[in-house]
Design a protein that fits this description.
alpha/beta, two-stranded antiparallel ribbon, globular
Length: 235
Amino acid sequence: MLFPARCAVCGGLGASPCPPCRRALLPAAPGPVPPGLDRLVALYAYRAGVRPLIGALKYRNNRALLPWASAVLADAWEEHHLGGALTWAPTSAARARRRGFDQSAVLARALRRELRGRSGNLPDLLPLLRRVPGPAQTGRHAADRRAVHFEVRRRPPLSVVIFDDVLTTGATLAAAAEALRGAGAVRVAALVLARTPAPPATTNAAVTPRPVPRFRDPEPAEFVRLALLCPRGGP
């Protein structure tokens, strides 16, 4: 049985995401570039609109989203003049077997197909990295996310662009860049579909308390003046 295509954001019939939901997606705000990267290109803020799209790709293997995702990624590749071999930050082998796919690899292949249909700016797609087994990054605290390690499967070219679906703390891309540079890469950039917005800034400035009114005791001369104004006896 064939089911009609629906937007992964609003559930409306038709392409996913539908035009109104596409227009509602917020661009990623500027932020720090993870260590080891020369450049970082991030498309969208990882907020309400884009979350269900990436979730549908990542956890439900919703291939109906690939035309949209590959098109916007190819637009960014061309606009920012990215170049070099294209690779991706892989999930672990165990998680890829459990899901039946690696979402970053699927998106990287779709990006290369889109670029092949547009122009001659066709990067080599190389599986350069292997993730060292460890816990999943989704839902982990920032300190725990830093414990990410990659092994290089083959000697990389001098220039490499790493694709990843979501940038949160930057630990995954930093670890991937470190591994590639250690194996011989000279220029390493990254392209991500979405970036988690930075948390709002907090201040540690002390709050100055409002002064408490203080009442002084009257001076002796004031007692005399008050006594003259308010005699005890009657007239």
